[in-house]
Specification:
The structure holds 2 protein chains of 2 kinds. Chain A is α/β, with parallel strands linked by helices. Chain A is elongated, with a radius of gyration of 19 Å. The N and C termini of chain A lie far apart (53 Å). Chain B starts with 6 loop residues before the first strand and ends with a strand. Chain B is built from 12 helices and 13 strands. Chain B is 32% helix and 18% strand. Classes of the chains: A alpha/beta, B alpha+beta. The interface between A and B is medium-sized, with 20 and 45 residues. Strand 1 of chain A pairs antiparallel with strand 1 of chain B.
Chain lengths: 95, 341
């Protein structure tokens, strides 16, 4: 005799209205954001990224934000600041 | 009650068990096939409609309904009457203080320890005695397993994807105990955490595996405290995070006989569970080389005595207690207690 089993899974919900930011062709004259997730060495990795990109482009400014903890999501105020002030953002984890 | 979960038809019981494996819906062990009629019984026992929201996890953008909880509870082997315990545990895990997303993702590999208190322990047959962390009791085994299946199936915490545990530990299959309140000369856990003694409650805690604290010849409170504090000070798990100390009946009887209170015990454990900065540096717990003064500068486990939760559980014979370190190395995930309603 056949039986019917029920799907136990839950899928991630779609994020209504979310759009991908415009891509930037290069970083000349742009503001770069660096978001460090709080893990060991993540800040050092991002510093290397800053050096590499700084050597390649004439960055107008760099905004560096450190999350207090890798276990927690970034604060809304930090994400809003990155969105408001930066043309491009790089985030990284170390460990 | 209208359910919305998709149904999959399979040839029979044995084929259903295999179908769960094929679809990646198990913890690696066979599950009980969840059919609509059984799931309805679980929802009825909980007094919940299928669409009732039990838990929202915003980072993973998941909303878990009562129907999905019941399906996974059936699969885990629970009985319908366990549902209120499971729902309370999930409510506790949804508390922001628990940091659910981090706790089930981290390389640290925590499992959710569930401690059950109050009259419901006996009514549902939760084990608080011998082999309390081990097998043999359906309520403990399946309640903890249901938490894991929900983490896997409803929160996407699949190993290698959204569960990045470096090693994890065996408690990730199931990790549920009850407190042996009858042997606790002080306040049981749920009372110490602010609930009425006659209430039934669950406490959830993102935990590393338990460390055995063997003190067979410790016939005084002082000797037991030395062994407990030394285990709590072990470098591997050393952090400012919370602690659970699960006292064996034999140990707590000696502590009570010698006139110790719960408060004194916590203060003594906090005072004793400490390492020098030099040790922490030599063991790779702190960065940098050992500097002058590091050998005499001490760091304690936790932030104070109040970070140490005391539970009594285990068999009547044997000087084996347990120390369970928090996964969280700081304040990122804290134990949460909820009343079972």
């Amino acid at each position: 005799m056949t039986i019917k089993i029920l799907d136990p899974t839950v899928s991630a919900e779609e994020t209504a209205g979310a759009v991908v930011a415009k891509r930037v062709g290069d970083l000349d004259g742009k503001v770069l954001g660096l978001l460090h997730n709080g893990k060991i060495n993540g800040d050092r990795l991002l510093e290397l990224v800053r050096e590499q990109l700084g050597a390649r482009y004439r960055l107008r400014d760099v905004v560096v934000i450190h999350k207090a903890s890798a276990s927690r999501v970034a604060e809304d105020t930090d994400l809003d600041r990155l969105a408001r002030e930066c043309d491009a953002v790089v985030t990284a984890i170390g460990d | 009650m209208q359910m919305t979960a998709a149904e999959h038809e399979v040839a029979g019981w044995a084929e259903a068990v295999e179908a769960y494996f094929e679809r990646g819906w198990t913890d690696g062990l066979p599950v009980v096939p969840a059919t609509a009629d059984v799931v309805q019984r679980f929802l009825a026992a909980a007094g919940r409609a299928p669409g009732d929201v039990v838990l929202r996890e915003t980072t993973r953008r998941r909303t878990i309904s009562a129907e999905k909880v019941a399906i996974n509870a059936v699969m885990a082997g629970c009985r319908p009457e366990y549902m209120p315990v499971l729902l309370a545990a999930l409510e506790a895990m949804a508390d922001p203080a628990f940091t659910l997303h981090g706790a089930i993702t981290s390389t640290g590999g925590s499992a959710t320890l569930v401690v059950v208190n109050g009259p419901i322990r006996k009514r549902l047959g939760f084990n608080a005695g011998g082999n309390v962390f081990g097998p043999g009791w359906r309520a403990n085994a399946t309640l903890g397993r249901a938490i894991r299946l929900i983490t896997l199936n409803c929160l996407g915490a699949l190993p290698g994807l959204l569960d990045r545990s470096t090693q994890g530990h065996p408690g990730k299959y199931t990790f549920c105990i009850a407190e042996l309140e009858e042997e606790n000369p002080w306040e049981p856990l749920h009372v110490a955490r602010g609930l009425r003694r006659e209430a039934s409650a669950v406490t959830v805690y993102a935990a590393e595996g338990p460390h055995n604290v063997l003190s067979h010849y410790g016939e005084t409170a002082e000797a037991i405290v030395v062994a407990l504090a030394d285990t709590m000070a072990c470098l591997g798990s050393f952090s400012p995070g919370e602690s659970f100390v699960v006292l064996a009946p034999e140990h707590v009887q000696i502590l009570a006989r010698d006139g110790w209170t719960r408060a004194r015990l916590r203060e003594a454990l906090y005072a004793g569970a400490r390492r020098t900065v030099a040790d922490l540096k030599r063991g790779g717990k702190l960065a940098g080389a050992v500097a002058p003064g590091d050998e005499t500068e001490w760091v304690h486990r936790g932030q104070g005595p109040e970070d140490i939760n005391i539970v009594v559980a285990g068999g009547g014979a044997g000087g084996h207690s347990a120390f369970i370190p928090s996964w969280s190395r700081d304040r990122n995930s804290l134990a949460v207690t909820k009343e079972i309603r």
